[in-house]
Amino acid sequence: MNLQNILSEIEKVDGDALARIEHMSRRSIFQNLLKKTVAGAGAAAFAGVLNKTYAQTSSVADVLNYALTLEYLEAEFYNLSLAASGLIPAGARTYYEQIAKHENAHVALLKSALGSAAVPKPTFDFTAGGAFATVFTNVDTNYALAQAFEDTGVRAYKGQATNLMSAPAILTIALQIHSVEARHAARIRYIRGNRGWITNAEATGLPQAIYSGEENVTQGGVNLVSALGMSAARVSEAFDEPLGMTEVFAIAGPFIKSLNR
Amino acid sequence: MATVEGLSGKASAALGRRVFMRYIGATAAAGVALSACHSELVDPTATGSARPGDAIDLGDIGSKDVNVLNYAYALEQLEAAFYTQAVMTPYSGITDAERQILTEIRDHEIIHRDLFKTALASAAIPGLTPDFSSINFSSRASVLGTARVFENIGVSAYNGAGQYIRTPDYLVLAGKIVSVEARHASIIATLLEPMSALFAGDQIIFPASGLEETRNPEEVLAIVRPYVKEFLNGRNGRR
Questions:
Q1: B171 contact A CB<8A
Q2: In a domain, B3, yes or no
Q3: Which domain, by its residues, includes B231?
Q4: Element (H, E) at A102
Q5: How many structural domains is chain B composed of?
Q6: Category of B44 on φ-ψ map: left (φ > 0), alpha (ψ -120 to 50) or beta
Q7: B57 within some domain
Q8: Bridge-partner residues for B228, per DSSP?
Q9: Residue B124 has what DSSP assignment?
Q10: CA A148 to CA A114: how far, in whole Å?
Q11: CA of B110 to nearest chain A CA: how many angstroms apart?
Q12: Do A238 and B180 count as a contact with CB atoms less than 8 A apart?
């Protein structure tokens, strides 16, 4: 893979986007990526991604393609939601448009970073085979899925942080996306009349798998309820829990009709 | 006076009024009835309390994990103290819902603070002395505006420090916390401007990339300097 060609391609796609990433240069991003053999990753790597568990280490390219897949899903979801006539009320359009802007920017950024190794956009079914038939006709269903995608996205990024420790510039990008998704999640939760944070494993009417594990009150080997004398509700809220790729694909899988590999 | 939620009698018994007084700061001058407040809201560290004017060296955050943890501990101390004050002396016109939100955030920050204190043990920096004299705790705009600044700074600090953490378990822990701080930031911004994009605004998230800003320790410590009476010194890591 020719580094200079990659850099020229990035300039064509969106020179501004990468130039505004704080504290890192294009060169450092790709030096780190190349260390993880991006060349030839493509389809085989992504198929392998689906079978990897949290316990296994994923390559940086695998992690970026995993993130890209989730961002494709979120971007498409918000783009379609905003395009659905009469669905999102005028007041909420401001939040949805801001969120959509970010998700689309994330897609563009991750595609640029991966270059020819980027996976194509999957074909999605946001009804999940009819389970959420009114996703684009009923605003409450729409808000529910928005919350599901955002809270899952936060946990998904969090679950990959340690896989990026060998590539500090990429880890930083992941953290910079992760906090944005958490802001989205809190805002959508608030629209639905929920707390911005996750209490115990309360599913707020969504599939329980999304919140499984969030009831955890032991951090760093210490049960913080007994150690600090704080309630389980507050302790569980104070920390968001990671999810591994397997768990995330179990949640997101029903919404993916085809990976288009 | 708002009741203290989530703290046990055991926690309250451990704390003295002298330390409590430090956290009251300017509010005492405003004539708040201190006797009605519970002294369990403040918490001296295992290694003691610092005194105003002390210099506290956080070190180079890239050189060892204890430095990153102490950096996070310092910021969580300030946040916990701020929300403790905000809940004890609520702003005029606070609604029940807002009071509940600030109380829960306060509890989260106390939990974060005490987790770092526990993890650091004898390596922890001392308890800091907040300086909230520039904040008008009776003003909704001042309290929520300051909360927004603290939360945004905290997120940018965690995002900037993550790459320097060497122990995977500590990175996971920092990751678990930073998203909660981002949730706090989002909700506080929503209380300030319910109908806007401030929850995830262009001022802090570059529109072209969708990336939230990061800050290095020297920048963060300069920003929080007005809010702490000790001199916190830290150096950026190198990567």
A1: yes
A2: no
A3: 9-235
A4: helix A90-114
A5: 1
A6: beta
A7: yes
A8: B130
A9: S
A10: 26
A11: 9
A12: yes
Q: Which domains does chain A have, with CATH numbers?
A: 41-197+242-261 (1.20.1260.10), 198-239 (no CATH)
Q: Which residues of chain B are within 8 Å of residue A168 when distances are taken between CB atoms?
A: 163, 239
Which of B180, B187, B214 comes nearest A176 by C-beta?
Answer: B214
Give the strand pairing for B231-235 and B55-60.
parallel
Which stretches does DSSP call E strand in B48-169? 55-60
How many cross-chain Cβ pairs, A to B, lie less than 8 Å apart? 212
Let me know how long chain A is.
261
Tens-digit pLDDT profile for residues A7-53: 333 333 333 333 333 333 333 333 333 333 223 333 233 334 444 43
**Hey, are the CB atoms on B179 and A178 less than 8 Å from each other?**
yes
Q: What is the pLDDT along chain B (239 residues), one digit of tens a residue?
A: 333 333 333 343 333 333 333 443 333 333 333 333 333 334 444 457 899 999 999 999 999 999 999 999 999 999 999 999 999 999 999 999 999 999 999 999 999 999 999 999 999 999 999 999 999 999 999 999 999 999 999 999 999 999 999 999 999 999 999 999 999 999 999 999 999 999 999 999 999 999 999 999 999 999 999 999 999 999 998 76
Report ipTM (2 d.p.).
Answer: 0.83
The answer, for A175 touching chain B at a CB cutoff of 8 Å, is: yes
